Structure formats: C-alpha cells, structure tokens
Amino acid sequence: MAELPRVPTGIAGLDEVLRGGLVAGRSYLLRGEPGTGKSILGLHFLTAGTDDETVLYINLEEPTDQIRDNARSLGFDLSDVEFLDLSPSSDFFAEDQSYSVFESSEVEQTPMAERITERVGKLEPDRVFLDPVTQFRYLTNDDYQFRKQVISFMRYLKEHDATVLFTSQWSETTPDDDLQFLADGVIELGQSEHGRTLEVPKLRGSDKQSGVHSLTISRDGIDVYPVLVPGDHTASFETGTLASGVETLDSLLNGGLERGTLTVVSGPTGVGKTTTGSLFLTEAAASGERSVIYMFEENESTFRHRSESIGVPVGEMVDDGTLAIEEIEPLDFSPEEFASMVREEVEEHDTSVVMLDGIKGYTLSIQGDEKELIRKLHALGRYLKNMGVTVVFLDEVASVQGEFRPTEAGISYLADNILFLRYAEMGDEIGKVVGVLKKRVGTSERTLRPFEITGGGVVVGDPLSNVQGLLSGSPSIDSETRE
C-alpha cells in the first residue's frame, strides 16, 4: 500500500503521534476547551509550511491585529501568512442595523460564503486554519443547515487540494459530535490535574499512536511528548559485560553487569547505593562511553563532593563529556516529558549507561499517580533495554530492619539483576553487606560479602559465612567469622 503524502504540523512530538504528520488534502478538527492551546497549535501548523506553500488563516472570532500580537509574543513570524478576517467588528453594534440578531443569519451567510470562496479561489492555499468553525452555527437556521454548510465548505477546500485544520468551541449545551463525524481526523486538547494533554481519537487513512500524550505550552509555543511505546524502539548493540572496577564486587556478579540489562541496586538510606551505581558509570567513562545520571533525591554539588572525596572523578567525567548529571526538580515534568528527555540523551548522544537515583524520588518528582508512574517507569526501562542501554535503577527500601524486600517499588520482575546492600550486626558494630539476589544472564555468587566505603573508594571483602537473619530483616555476622 502506497504511503500517503504527509503535511508536518510544526510540532515534532505531534508528528510522531500522527506517524509523520497530517495526511495531505484532508480536514482535521482541533477541539478543546478555551485555554488548551488550539490557536497556538494552529500557528505551528501555518508557519510549518515550506517557502512554496501558500497558507491562509480564516479568523471568525479574533481580529487579525490581535492574532499577530499574540503570535509575536510567542516568537511566530506571520509575515507569510494570508488572513481572511471574518471576525465581528464594533460597527455591528455602533451602526443602526436594519435586521435583528435573530435575522442576521439570513443576511450575513451569503456575503461571508462569497468572501471565503473568492479568497480561496484567488490564493489556492495549501494550508488553511479556520478558527473557530462553530461560528458558522450562528449563520444557519438549524443543525442540519450547519452540517450541510460545513460539509460543503470542506469539500470546496479539498477540491482546491488544501489541508485544513479547524477548531471548535464545544460545551455540554453545544456539543460538536457532528463535527467529529465530518472530519477526517480529530486532535483533542485537554487539561488534567497533572498537566495538559493531547489525544488523537480519529485519523482516517492512517495509523496513529494511541494514548493520552503530554503537552506543554511555553513562550516558544507547544511541545508534545508522546506516550513511550517500548516496542517502537530497537537498536542493535554489542553484547559484553560492564565491570564496576572493584574486583571483588565483580566476582560477586560473575564479571559485572551484562550490556543491555536492567539492574536494581536496593538498600536502606545511606547504605551506599548511589556510590555503588557510580562505579559502573566510572568504568564506562574509562572506555570512552557516555553515561547519564538523573538525580531525584540529591543535588549535583553534593554528589560531586561526596564522589570525589572517595576517588570517583565526577568532575573530569563531566568535563570530558563521558558523564551528564541531570537534577530533576519536583513536579516539573510529566512522565512523557521525562521519557522524552531520556530518549533525546540516548538517541542524540549515543549514551550507553543510564542511572536513575532513585525510584522513590521519581514517583515524588514526576507528575502523576504513583501506580501509573511505576507503569511508566516499566515502559522506560524496557525502552532502554531495547536500545541496548545498560540501566541502573536505585531503589530505597523503607526500613533498616524488617522483612527482607528486594525492591520497594515492586519492579523486581523487570530487573535482570538485583544487587542489594544491607546493614548488618557484626559483633558489637554495625557494618554493611552486599549480595546478588537475582542475575538473569549467567551465574552469580550466592554469598554475602562485607561492603565498606572508605577514603580510597569502595571496598568489598571476601565471602562471609554463618550469616544469620538476612531474610527476617536483622542480618548478623559472628565477629569471629569475620576474622
């Protein structure tokens, strides 16, 4: 089946949802409540036209000067946009009218239709943005006449090979179901408690990405962040092992972490999860590979100071481009926007290792319901694995003592490897131990090893024996056994 020609919307994320853009020569309904960004999306659509395209803005409500001022404030250049201003003027009220408001449809409909056909016939526009088409309701006597007029109008534009985007103003008292039926596609803008949304419930003659996508409006206009579908993204990669650089820890892992796998490093607060994860980033940097760490629970300066105090050269890694550190501010991102940030890092910078510090911080810092966020995190992890990225998720368990839980967020099934750190009673001291609960590829030691962070870095000792109480949450090691 031949691919239909596409018209880009000027918004990269929306074009991704539309599988390349709008199908050329068809009409599309852009619906949403006031303030959801319909007119701004229309500006993107019009200004995305190429130099040899003619674009027309038919404004039925807002005057041209006001549209130009608003567009200028958002950085849109409308110098190449033609306007057909059919918005009501103040003369309507200032002059003595010879007909009432209720009779105006009979008087105004024909002149307005003539102005539209005359302008379209003269310009032969490639793109048309009509805002809002529901103004035609006031120029017809009933819903039947309105639908008939819209169908006729859209057909006329199609005959002139125009791709049309038109908006509607709908409410419970004035629904636009008829317009949804008439349009070749529907783009719906919304607003939820967690931010702006975009959905494409209908797109004739084309595949599309389903789901509720994230949308933001800034001084630069609109950005759309599609729902991440892991199966849509794959990349070939070389298999191998990423070591930690600590020989005894690598022995515990039977050489290290396999490339393209997801590892959860779990443990209570302060046990050394971030430091352990950073070992793998350091080894990747030594091979000239790029890594990124997303920090939800700690700021960059603290991380740098703490890492460099034990010999992890974070500053050098950042300076030579082998490490990127991204602080995530609370509630600044939707899960789709964050996933888009990760995708850009991986696909544009060829990043081979991604670390999230940590899962609990992710659920607190990203907008959305916690259960839904964990589902989004699953999708992100699968995407990264499909792209051959080695992934490290840090997961803080709730308490120092208590029933042993491999992860707090319930993502153990997603993990290829689970490396756990725990506090343990060692005679009359509190020490730390490290072990491997799960390793999907290959084998691993089934023992615990003592774990310590010193001024010289991470120290992992020889396997311990006679460890008691790990699964009950109170591990202890006889002091004589340690010696």
Q: Can you put this structure into words, describing what you see?
A:
This protein folds into two domains: 6-226, Rossmann fold (3-Layer(aba) Sandwich); 232-482, P-loop containing nucleotide triphosphate hydrolases (Rossmann fold, 3-Layer(aba) Sandwich). The chain contains 15 helices and 24 strands. Strands 14, 15, 16, 17, 18, 19, 20, 21, 22, 23 and 24 form an eleven-stranded mixed β-sheet that branches. A nine-stranded mixed β-sheet has the order 5-4-6-7-3-8-9-10-11, with helices on both faces. Strands 1-2 form a two-stranded antiparallel sheet. With 483 residues, the chain is of the alpha/beta class. The chain is elongated and about 95 Å long. Strand 8 and strand 9 (195-203) form a beta hairpin.
Give the helix level as a range of percent. Answer: 25-40%
The outline comes out as elongated
Question: Largest beta sheet, briefly?
Answer: 11 strands, mixed
CATH class of the largest domain: Alpha Beta
Low-confidence stretches: 96-107
Number of helical segments?
15
CATH topology of the largest domain: Rossmann fold
- Beta-strand portion reads 25-35%
Query: How many β strands by DSSP?
Result: 24
